């Protein structure tokens, strides 16, 4: 491993942890919305000052799941956690997360709710960190299934299919 590779891997890991932490914070906020906390001004356009209506509470519950999966994908892409067996989706997933967060930033900027516009900063940071993670990823010598590529089946640690 070269110094450049180690530095890139360190940036990817740090970015992944920071982005995952921010996504976890948003997941906690969405969970509070789903459970009926009177924080409606902070989400869904800020049109509901108190508790969100039932439909938006269901949407917040779904957002918790999506945010948790996004955090896991970024942690896997950054090399912080081991990639799942079907890890082929990690790299495109990281790019999808970066794109979604970028669009979300634009939507927050356009919101009529001053409270919602205040979260734009953290969303923009998450988008930037997600792009860093998606762009750099973990050690490129590792395949999506977590094994190093080999030139011979005799050198491989994999079981034959």
Description:
There is one protein chain. The chain is an all-alpha fold. It has one domain (3-136). 61% of the residues lie in helices and 0% in strands. The chain has five helices and no strands. Helix 1 (3-34) runs antiparallel to helix 2 (54-77), helix 1 (3-34) packs antiparallel against helix 5 and helix 2 packs across helix 3. It is globular and about 45 Å long. The model is unreliable at 139-152 (pLDDT under 50).
Backbone shape: globular
Helix content: 55-70%
Instruction: Give the structural class.
Output: mainly alpha
> Which percent band covers the strand fraction?
under 5%
Straight-line distance between termini: 30 Å
The total number of structural domains is 1
* Radius of gyration, in angstroms, nearest whole number: 19 Å
**Mean of the pLDDT scores?**
75
Q: Tell me the major beta sheet.
A: none
Q: Total strand count, please? A: 0
User: What is the overall number of helices?
Assistant: 5
Provide key terms for this protein.
single chain, 161 residues, mainly alpha, 5 helices, 61% helix
Sequence-ordered SSE layout with sheet pairings:
Elements lengths: L2 H32 L19 H24 L12 H21 L3 H5 L1 H17 L25
Q: How would you summarize what this structure contains?
A:
By secondary structure, the chain is an all-alpha fold. Helix content is about 60%, strand content about 0%.
